[in-house]
Write a structure and sequence with these properties.
This protein has 120 residues and is of the alpha/beta class. The protein is 35% helix and 22% strand. It starts with 18 loop residues before the first strand and ends with a strand.
């Protein structure tokens, strides 16, 4: 009998692995980042918007936040500004390649670095 289940050959990250929160309104990007990072030994939690991210931040500790700059409602830049008043966790902003102003805004808001999209 042939199985159609996907077999994941990567070992699950252990509890001591760095824990990342990926916040992006694009489901495809969230899922790709989660898969790639998990396969490379990270524990990954995802959120689709700033409100969902805030709820997860209230109950969990993270070693790194990966925030999309352009999200509907509260943007990644706005979320970064407010988080900097409360937390000292590193923040990596995801920005579209042509959004130079967004990159600058994110860094001025307190992000530690940025990664342009699309990325390899």
């Amino acid at each position: 009998m042939e199985s159609t289940e996907r077999v994941d050959h990567a070992a699950a990250p252990d509890d001591d692995a760095p824990h990342l929160l990926v916040v992006d309104d694009d489901t495809r990007i969230r899922n790709l980042l989660k898969q790639y990072l998990t396969e490379n030994g990270f524990r990954v939690t995802v959120a689709g918007n700033a409100g969902e991210a805030r709820r997860k931040l209230a109950g969990l500790d993270f070693d790194l936040l990966v925030l999309d700059v352009m999200m509907p409602g509260e943007t990644g830049v706005d979320l970064t500004k407010s988080l900097r008043a409360e937390k000292n966790v590193p923040i990596l902003m995801l920005t579209a390649l042509s959004e130079t102003d967004s990159r600058i805004s994110g860094l001025e808001a307190g992000a530690d670095d940025y990664l342009p999209k699309p990325f390899d």
